[in-house]
Design brief:
The structure is a single chain. Helix content is 66%, strand content 10%. The chain has eleven helices and seven strands. Strand 4 and strand 5 form a beta hairpin. Helix 1 packs across helix 2 and helix 8 runs antiparallel to helix 9. It is elongated. The two termini are 59 Å apart.
Length: 341
């Protein structure tokens, strides 16, 4: 590494570490790499997205750090790659042996062709009889068949390798989704929620709110229409709420038919207005059960909204939101509590 590059690396590290401490970013290798890239200011898209996240959360939550690292820094995506490397090693070994065999066959073919061409050139000079000429042609045909079989096998191996590579890519994408996202709804999962909320709580997050909501009478959808339609309700609700989220707020599947939205830097009044907009949006949701020919337009949800107060932990904030959510259900469902701030 040149002297200039070493100096640049030292400068970037001196800039990155204080920023990480300021925003209480865990000192993991992944985070070091992400913030090193950020202070290097060579990727405008990364810096813009990071600035938006930090402005919103006063930190970079774990799920966002992972997402940004994979999107802008990691190449390829650094997930659980042991099995992938094992498969790739086996694939490369197999291809290498096939290529070696094909090269050997091709060399043999070239030598035989050269020998047969020598014989062809001797036909005119030495006057081969018809039987010798026919045998020479047969030899050329045999050698051609052999090399064709060899190259066809190698081509087949290449096609097989391409298929396996595509499978590995799909597995990597699925693994990445499994880490942060709920497979059914596409919302961020409970693991991402716990990590993000804990990270936010570490910042003494003034004016941070939490929205918890639960689909009303969800069991009835499963009982009356079957679990497939119940799954469709969950997916449709998640899609509709994601569309209602704004300013970078993210939807999490908290568990079962319960969801959460973390709203940083927002007073209770604003967070409640957001929850009310979500509630009204769900009221307009219509699904069709094609098997029974039924129209389902009774999808509603109950919401509890709470604001962080000095001394609150993540658990306290969840308990406050959850208490308001179940009070909303007790009062008749399809409503947001508190009614006013």
């Amino acid at each position: 590494m040149s002297k200039n590059l070493l100096q640049e690396a030292a400068i970037n590290l001196k800039r990155a570490v204080p920023l990480m401490l300021k925003h209480q970013i865990p000192t993991t290798p992944t985070n070091y790499a992400l913030w090193y890239a950020y202070v290097g200011e060579k990727n405008e898209a990364l810096n813009q997205e990071m600035d938006t996240v930090v402005q919103q959360f006063n930190t970079c939550p774990s799920s966002r750090s992972t997402h940004l690292y994979r999107k802008y820094v990691a190449d390829p995506v650094e997930l659980d790659v042991r099995e992938m490397r094992k498969n790739l090693d086996a694939m490369v070994t197999d291809l290498g042996q096939s290529l070696k065999d094909t090269n050997f066959d091709a060399t043999e073919f070239q030598n035989n062709i050269d020998a047969n061409f020598d014989k062809l050139s001797r036909i005119e000079n030495e006057g081969f009889n018809l039987e010798q000429v026919v045998e020479l042609v047969r030899s050329l045909v045999r050698e051609s068949d052999n090399i064709r079989s060899s190259t066809q096998y190698f081509t087949g191996q290449l096609q097989k390798a391409q298929t396996e590579i595509e499978t590995l890519k799909q597995q990597l994408q699925k693994t990445e989704q499994d880490i942060l996202y709920d497979a059914l709804t596409g919302a961020l999962n409970r693991r991402a929620f716990d990590e993000d909320l804990q990270n936010l709580m570490a910042q003494a997050p003034d004016a941070c709110c939490l929205i918890l909501f639960d689909i009303d009478h969800f069991k009835a959808f499963n009982d009356n229409y079957g679990h497939q339609l119940g799954d469709q309700v969950l997916k449709s609700v998640a899609k509709r709420i994601n569309e209602a989220c704004r300013d970078g707020n993210k939807l999490y599947r908290y568990g079962g038919e319960e969801f959460a939205v973390i709203v940083p830097k927002s007073q209770l009044r604003v967070a409640r207005q957001l929850a009310e907009a979500m509630r009204k949006s769900l009221e307009k949701l219509v699904l069709k059960d094609r098997r029974k020919g039924a129209r389902i337009d009774s999808i509603t949800a109950s919401f509890g909204v709470a604001q962080w107060q000095e001394g609150d932990s993540a658990l306290n904030l969840i308990e406050k939101s959850d208490k308001l959510l179940y009070e909303a259900k007790r009062l008749g469902r399809n409503r947001v509590l508190p009614i006013t701030n």
